[in-house]
Amino acid sequence: xxxxxxxxxxxxxxxxxxxxxxxSRQEAKVKPEAAQSLKTPKPADFSKDDELDAYRAMLLIxxxxxxxxxxxxxxxxGGFCHxxxxxxxxxxxxxxxxxxxxxxxxxxxxxxxxxAMGMNPRGVMAELTGRRGGYSxxxxxxxxxxSKEKNFYGGHGIVGAQVPLGTGLAFxxxxxxxxxxxxxxxxxxxxxxxxxxxxxxxAALWKLPVVYVIENNxxxxxxxxxxxxxxxxxxxxxxxxxxxxxxxxxxxxxxxKSAGEMAVAHCRTGQGPIILEMQTYRYRGHSMSDPAKYRTxxxxxxxxxxxxxxxxxxxxxxxxxxxxxxxxKAIDKEVRDIVADAAEFAQTDPEPDVSELYTDIVI
Length: 363
Ligand SMILES: Cc1ncc(C[n+]2csc(CCOP(=O)(O)OP(=O)(O)O)c2C)c(N)n1
Ligand SMILES: [Mg+2]
What we know:
The protein is an alpha/beta fold.
């Protein structure tokens, strides 16, 4: 694949995107399968510190989301609220593979992504409750938060809309020759949107540094992948654009990290876009208003008991005697304190002033 990618790259000496020459006869004959020659790497070897870092990071997301669910139930959070519980290993492992200059953009199931990118839990929770100290001054809510400082570009409510935007980030990176990579996340449902394929075409044509992370959590609202998708192997979705893809165990943070490292290196070395299909699962309903009647309780329970991303790390830490149960409880306490502080702030911070109704908006 690497050789094929180099061969088909544009002849620009500046490295800036430019119109591609027509493909040579040889390139035109490349079989679609050639785009699938990458192999899923083995899960990364984690040191004690890696395991503890991953444990802490995933636990922060889990406890934050549990608290958001409670606050929603108590009426402190209005509107939509999509929880990420179950999928924590995806964003955590990828963040471990990213450099500080790399960017992230995702859909509306975004609280975990923001926390992983180092955004302040107080600012995220206060945005959920619509308060002044929220990342969008309380006017964006769960689906619309951004932090240019932390390279997080949202938070998007329109299914698939972040994919052209994330591809645009990659275009800018290539134009600026800054070596940064755009990690553009979307769901299995979003993968059926037309704009995704328009983006794939441009990204492949101009060899843009974008990792397309498809979080396949098996459902789009109440519709299973089997009922909505003609091709359920999402790593193959780039074949007609010669974008390579791999399937990754998205419940194992070590597998996610090694796939992420490989994908980021692929982009950074000028080989163009790559797809990572993260096979994962959401434990909660699509949003807070979903009773999830389209699947059995047993299905959810099986994933929780056999593949939970946090329990996997915990079991390894205990088995290798890298942490005692007491030490793990102390980490849980630390994390709970951070979340409790964020929740307290989110309930006591004032609501935006009425004058804010007319700021930051286009009328
Ligand atoms: C263009 C558009 N169509 C439909 C919707 C309604 N909608 C919101 S989420 C969703 C399902 C998306 O599922 P998926 O991409 O798998 O992401 P997940 O919710 O599983 O994270 C739909 C259809 C929308 N927000 N935007
Ligand atoms: Mg989905």
